[in-house]
Specification:
The protein has about 425 residues and is of the alpha/beta class. Helices cover about 50% and strands about 15% of the residues. The chain is built from 17 helices and 15 strands. A 7-stranded mixed β-sheet has the order 7-6-8-9-10-14-15, with helices on both faces. A 5-stranded parallel β-sheet has the order 2-1-3-4-5, sandwiched between helices. It has a 3-stranded antiparallel β-sheet with strand order 11-12-13.
């Protein structure tokens, strides 16, 4: 009887200790400023993943709890947030939409020996020239999207003239270059381009660059712009009558951009997505379909790619912790490197040499209003034109090494 009482007391104390001692993970995301819509989606995806993990017993027998900081999409603020989140006890950090934020925050995390997942951040630099041992990126990079989009355009829009309007920062530059390389449009005298100031572009800047595109008589206008910048450019293009005269291409199209601009404005635009809520149907992914249903039930919305990326990060981190039986960043990194999995679509892999998530990329086109409204959700924004699996679209080790060498970085993380 005395032994039973002692055991009961020990169990009670253990349960109480576990309940009071959760594992903290830190979301460093844009709650305000540029890309706040993608930031909100990341928060929602992360919370859904944490709820599911805790309902299944947590990680290493402990519940997981989320702590957050607002980056406002400013790199210096994101780096300071890393210190605050680590001081609070975060075992892992994730977040970002801007590539510059991902680079700054992950570098500070490296200095603190803390694992950082760049949830989104499409510039090659994140896992390329600025990559290091402590950073992993869930979303596709510019090389992957450039390959997929470039091959589609080369097949279906052969021998067309291009004009590039590019955001003047690392993502814009790498996206333009990747698309030029894969569409045979590297001759800038024939396929002209212009830079748009980032992040300080004025309306006069949008008007000026789009008038140059109009005067070029190009058949394809590439808007290597993202988020709010892409929305403003599309509104200006419509005002100038450009949307009805040319094929507009945007390397990274997202659900949040369509919702900000309105699907009517974006009809016919071609781009890429690394995940969309139709993907689980295409790939026959049971867990992906469940995620779409659960997200819709929780938030009365269909999930965008930003939500899927955050959900994947949290689930994959938890899986790596369980497999390594450790919260130590080094042990979790070892468990992630080279790990192949299927979660919300088909197979993906955390590539060992650069920590890039290699995965299927979808070439998509924005549906017309009739198609959008035909679905009960009123959110069927994209038609999938083609899919490129990771063994088709990935950057090679030799290409990665060349990028590192050009930046004066070592040829391994």
């Amino acid at each position: 009887m005395r032994m039973l009482s002692a055991l009961t007391l020990w169990v009670g104390m253990t349960v109480t200790a576990l309940a009071a001692d959760p594992i903290l993970i830190g979301l460093n995301y844009p709650r305000t400023g540029h890309y706040k819509e993608e930031g909100l989606a990341q928060m929602r995806g992360a919370l859904l993943a944490i709820d599911e993990i805790n309902a299944q017993g947590g990680v290493l027998g402990r519940e997981v709890s989320l702590i957050t900081r607002d980056t406002a999409s400013r790199p210096e603020k994101a780096a300071r947030n890393v210190d605050a989140l680590v001081d609070q006890g975060a075992a892992m950090l994730f977040g970002s939409v801007s590539s510059a934020v991902a680079v700054a925050a992950s570098e500070r995390a490296r200095q603190l020996n803390t694992l950082y997942f760049a949830t989104i951040g499409y510039s090659n630099d994140v896992t390329g020239a600025n990559g290091h041992r402590y950073v992993f990126r869930e979303s596709s990079n510019a090389a992957m999207t450039g390959y997929a989009l470039g091959h589609y355009l080369s097949t279906h829009f052969a021998d067309k003239s291009y004009f590039y309007i590019t955001a003047d920062y690392s993502w814009g530059h790498s996206s333009e270059q990747a698309l030029r390389d894969n569409t045979n449009t590297t001759d800038t005298s024939k396929h002209k381009g212009v830079l748009l100031p980032f992040p300080t572009a004025k309306q006069s800047d949008y008007t000026a660059v789009l008038k140059q595109a109009q005067e070029s008589n190009a058949e394809i206008v590439v808007l290597a712009l993202y988020g709010h910048d892409l929305v403003r450019a599309m509104r200006t293009a419509e005002t100038l009558g450009l949307t009805k005269k040319v094929q507009i291409v945007a390397p990274n199209l997202t659900q949040s951009v369509i919702e900000q601009a309105g699907p009517g404005l974006m009809v016919g635009v071609i781009g890429t997505e690394h995940w969309l809520w139709r993907a689980p149907e295409v790939e026959n992914s049971a867990t992906g379909l469940a995620f779409v249903e659960n997200f819709n039930q929780a938030y009365e919305l269909y999930p965008p790619s930003a939500a899927a990326s955050a959900y994947t990060v949290v689930k994959q981190w938890a899986d790596a912790v369980q497999r390594s039986n450790s919260l130590d960043s080094g042990a979790v990194i070892n468990a992630l490197e080279g790990h192949e999995y299927s979660l919300l679509k088909d197979a993906a892999q955390w590539r060992a040499f650069d920590h890039q998530n290699i995965q299927t990329v979808y070439v998509v086109q924005v549906n017309d209003r009739e198609a959008v409204m035909a679905h009960p959700s009123r959110q069927d924004y994209f038609k999938i034109l083609e899919r490129f699996e990771f063994d088709q679209n990935m950057q090679t080790f030799e290409q990665w090494q060349a990028d590192r060498a050009a930046a004066g970085k070592p040829n391994k993380l």
